[in-house]
Amino acid sequence: MYIFAVETSCDDSAVAILEDSTVIAEIVYTQSIHAQHGGVVPEVASRQHLDILPKLAETCLKDAGLLSFNSIDVFAATAGPGLVGTLLVGLSFTKALAWSLCRPFLGINHLAAHLHTHYAKAGSIEFPAIALLVSGGHTCLLRMNSWADICLLGSTRDDAAGEAFDKTAKLIGLGYPGGQAIDKAAREGNATGVRLPSPLSNPALPEFSFSGLKTAVRMVWEKGVDMNDLCASFQKTVVDILVSKLLYQAKLAGAGTILAAGGVSANSLLRSELAKAASKNNLALHLPELKYTTDNAVMVGRAASAWMEYNPNSYSSLTCNAFARWQGTKLNTAVI
Ligand code: KG4
Ligand code: ZN
To answer: Average pLDDT of 126-130?
Structure first.
């Protein structure tokens, strides 16, 4: 079954074609225009999606070796959470294709999609699994009982982990988005060089708070500290909190599997600390390939594929609308 998937929840325009959960063709266009503004400008992002999406779709179709959209069996697009204006572009584009070809459509939850980066039909993940979802917009711990039964254990009370990386990077002049730049600078620094608070660090509490950390960074930076030491200390503080909470929940659930997803799961210290923790505690660890840590359409296609495996013949209505936030405790993969 061929799935055509689209992602436009923020500043990445992405399209993929999958055969079930196997990638046939994929393209991501990252909108670099926002760097000059120090953050994503929603209106500019929407206009860029509108301009680029039809071109990406045509190219992806060619790359997949398909003659026309007629070969596609199911169309899927991110419905939210995200920027409503940017979501509407991808959603409307994909719904229009589905409608014109009389094919089913699936509106996909972006958070579920990040987790489905790890989905493969012949899947090797053992459940229950505890997932750490860390991106620019979200930081959550989730319990996965299966691909169709995912519940929220806790999330951030204020800033997301990626947001803390981005705000810290902007403050010390490393540009936007700054997660990768901090990761790089931290390699040259001493992680015990700058004393920073560790907010909500009790591992038993499945919630996070990173806005105080950002303020602490500002205060020490204004006093004058080594930039690399500050990056290393900040990164270690965030990573220690993320890893300890994930491990605690895995032990509590008696889970043998942990996984990470989202942009911050590209962080080199987070990946190495998770690997150490997994081997020490005899846990299976699943980390996404680096290209699938940030927003992409392959994860949307895999989420659609998993949804159809567990819910045959259940599709979204063409009235499916974009949504900015996800609230609740049960994470539904598709909007039905
Ligand atoms: O998942 P994503 O593409 O977008 C959202 O859904 O939010 O994540 C983007 C976030 C940004 O905040 C970016 O700074 C962060 O992921 N990021 C990193 C690294 N690479 C990207 N954070 C820390 N270390 C990295 N190497
Ligand atoms: Zn994302």
So the answer is: 97
